[in-house]
Hints:
This protein is mainly beta.
Amino acid sequence: xxxxxxxxxxxxxxxxxxxxxxxxxxxxxxxxxxxxxxxxxxxxxxxxxxxxxxxxxxxxxxxxxxxxxxxxxxxxxxxxxxxxxxxxxxxxxxxxxxxxxxxxxxxxxxxxxxxxxxxxxxxxxxxxxxxxxxxxxxxxxxxxxxxxxxxxxxxxxxxxxxxxxxxxxxxxxxxxxxxxxxxxxxxxxxxxxxxxxxxxxxxxxxxxxxxxxxxxxxxxxxxxxxxxxxxxxxxxxxxxxxxxxx
Length: 246
């Protein structure tokens, strides 16, 4: 699948216009969500457990545990973490769904003190579906199985993205932007897949930094990757894509 750079630029402009209706692109603007519709942790300071379908969501400052949780909302945010969560632990089968058509977000995080880590074992999973799947700064997937689907963005990161420890991550988007690792005028950010992990991207994948696949990992891009830094594949890893642009 060959996508001309002019078309990519036009598409990116259109996406930014739509994205601006939800976020201020100079930083994530947090709007307090209705806790009865979504779960808003921006001002929560004590341990709290929320019922979620047949499972639960437990917040213990800086750590969020999803235990067979089912979150289904039409609010602006399904999970609004603010800067309060640095780690999401997966237990069992979990899903986060936001059907708010005008700009619903699955998971929103704005922590500045390191990456948001999504952690699980091989039997644990998280399925995120929304207009904007996951919006975060730096993000690490450490083990577990995560599927992200967004009609505009699957995963939009304003920091380094790391997939490690055998994590299995799949991202896709109806608009063709399943993942965007966005840098700024002062810093570029990288996408790294390491430690026998697997990343599947369905669509166009812009990375405003380096992309590295290492230590037996597998990356498949059903589309083109637009990489502004270096691309390296090492340690018995594999990378399959339709086209790469530098």
